[in-house]
Amino acid sequence: MTESTDDLLFPAEEELEGAQWLTTPDEAPPAGERPGYEFRHTFSLVKAPERAVLTATAHGVYEAFINGSRVGDIELAPGATSYRRTLYVQAYDVTKLLTPGLNELRIVVSDGWFRGRCGPSRVPDNFGTQIGILASLKCEESGRKTRICTGHGWQVARGAIVSADLMDGQFTDLRRIGKEEWEPAILSTDVLTNNRSRLGWSPAPPVRVKEQYRPRSIHRLPNGRQIIDFGQILNGRTRLSQLGPAGTRVELTHGEILNAEGDLVLDHLAYNPPWQPPIGVGQKDIVISRGLEGDIFEPRHTTHGFRYVAVDGLDQELLPDNITAVQLRTDFPSTGSFTSSDDSLNALHRISVASWHANSCDLPTDCPQRERWGYTGDFQIFARSAAFLDDIDGFARKWLRSLADDQFESGLIPNVAPLCGVVEDPHVPFSLDGAAGWGDAATVVPWELYRQYGDVQILRDFYPMMSRWVDYAAGMAASQRHPERVLKQPEPAKHEAFIWDSGWQWGEWLEPDTEFDYQSDKSIVATAYLALSARIVADSAQVLGVSADEARYRSLEKNVVAAWQEEFVRTDATITEPTQANYVRGLAFGLFPQTQRAAAARHLVNLIEENGNRLSTGFLSTGLLLPTLSEQGHTGLAYKLLFQREEPGWLLMLDRGATTVWEAWNGVDNKGEAHGSLNHYSKGAVVTFLHEYVAGIRPAAPGYAAVEIAPHPWIPLTHASATVETRNGEVRSSWKVQDGRFILDIATAHGVPTSVVMPDGTRHVSNGGAQRFVMEYVETSPGVHIGFSPGR
């Protein structure tokens, strides 16, 4: 629940009792051309209330005003949700906005996620065709309660917002202010409005304005266009205070990169599927000035992903005080930090955080410009890292509720949640949902939340979704076979009942120098994830005390692991599809027999060394690469991969000017040309290595009820430190190398069992508190320090 006090913890359905859903009397204009509608109601109060609370929600994105003043500071309410099953309600203390006499309550609503154009295909009307509002204003004065509800007597008009769409942008004509043509609002006929049981308080913090950026530079092109560089790719909007004389039409186009001539480039963000006409990038806001001094244009019914803004139509020279970039994201508390002696590592951490924040606007999106979807795969990869950086508990629970709401009856998990903006490719005769690594967000994300916060309720709430997903995947493995496998061997081997090789699979996705083949057998990836998710559900069943389920899923995991070994692993620990990604996954998921793990790790090392000490992992395994190497005793190689500055690699992004993490390793190539999104946070999962291995902080029990600190240092890095605020107090690890000594300072809350593992393998156990540990190290060759303990 947002903007509320403790005594407002009532069911949302009750507080809106008496309020009726209102909508507009006109038919919806074409998608992308739909205006912002303004609903209003006037009422009188004898006295100013002692207390007043506005409770509201909408089908669409709304903002409320009382007597011309905006209510609260929540943005994009009621947020992204699976409207058919769940709709969140907001409560605001508006006591100070009401006065004796006549008052006006006005609510502005636009399409938002409800009926706006969503996803790269820009599909509209995902949850309905009628926008709507539902609100109740409760006033208390001297024991007397007055309630003003949406219903008969309200009016509606098209306001100054000519059109608004989260993907396309917002068009505002300020000349229309005060010239609205009011007519009676009507009761909504949307069948969803009959279901009030879906109303509730969001567990997530709301979206708010966070960081704000002044221009780093402003320059004008020969064609009159002005280009503003804010120095940082972000998600949000621009605030413009120089609007020109009355009638001036100013266009603001948002993007991530400039060309050699200094103009904005958008082609790399275009989505042009072959079966439909090209779809524009959008990201354009338009304002028509009314010529009044003090007018400000700040479009609150859209967001964009951008660093640069191209301003067209404005003759006046923009000054730095005239335009501001406004970041929008979920207002979760920051909980973690990292710093080191290497500026590049610090910068990599910084751009990873920036990319995560740009993709945390009420849901974990893949990118804030081209798609802006709540992709399952991206958050599956990054949830562990995100939990180091911010308190994502409520944010992730909210998204998981959408994921559970949108789970298919079969147990299949969609690629995105909330499930909107989806159009199937007619060239692919089956669903694109339910892929391994994407659908496994249903198990991985709840488990990571439990690991971080120690709240059993997380598992209790989402266990049905988790188990149904694993049952679906296991059923696919048992009942279907890939055509390639059938041709090779018409009669299936016994172990193939546990090989998942059917349905749509993205596989590793975006492996460098690898062309994606959607028809190929990707069972080495899918079967690995089936084993992982079976283990997670078994572990969850154990925590929840569901012994029968635990036994069933332990048996499934055992059979799947055995099948993976039978199908893909040879006696010398080589695998049938020898890629870095497959070795990493097999090691990280515990799929190799214990007797083969060292040999498998050596095969992985050989592949990396043969590739010039460069990685070749793709979407799913890149975040696992460095931790896996370090766990297998190859910390030095992990650091070499981390620090190498050739393509593909993390630091190359910095060398080519990245301020957020790229979708592709060659997001900006050596010619300065952009490819794909320049703001995809999944590769930023490398921050897990920085926190858990470089600094060495990890929970030894769920919720950090016990802590292990085991740094994996590697010289020439001479210092690293990290902190994380947990449910059991702050954990801090800080080490430095000085005068032939390795010095580690740690701190955990008193009473928290703490285990410290030094680089030479010695272990120290305590019951919390601040402590220092010192160890001598050996310089193995002049001027070069190559680690501490055997294998590191």
Report what the structure shows.
By secondary structure, the protein is of the alpha+beta class. It has 16 helices and 33 strands. The strands form seven sheets. Strands 11, 12, 16, 17, 18, 19, 22, 23 and 24 form a nine-stranded mixed beta sheet that branches. A six-stranded antiparallel beta sheet has the order 5-4-7-2-10-13. Strand 8 and strand 9 form a beta hairpin. 53% of the residues are buried. Mean pLDDT is 94; it is low at 1-10, 780-786 and 788-792.
Give the CA-based shape.
Answer: globular
Strand content: 15-25%
Poorly predicted segments: 1-10, 780-786, 788-792
List the quaternary state of the chains: single chain
Straight-line N-to-C gap: 48 Å
Classify the secondary structure makeup into a structural class.
alpha+beta
Average pLDDT works out at 94
Number of strands: 33
Largest sheet descriptor: 9 strands, mixed
Number of helices: 16
Helical fraction: 10-25%
Question: Short description, anyone?
Answer:
The protein is 25% helix and 24% strand.
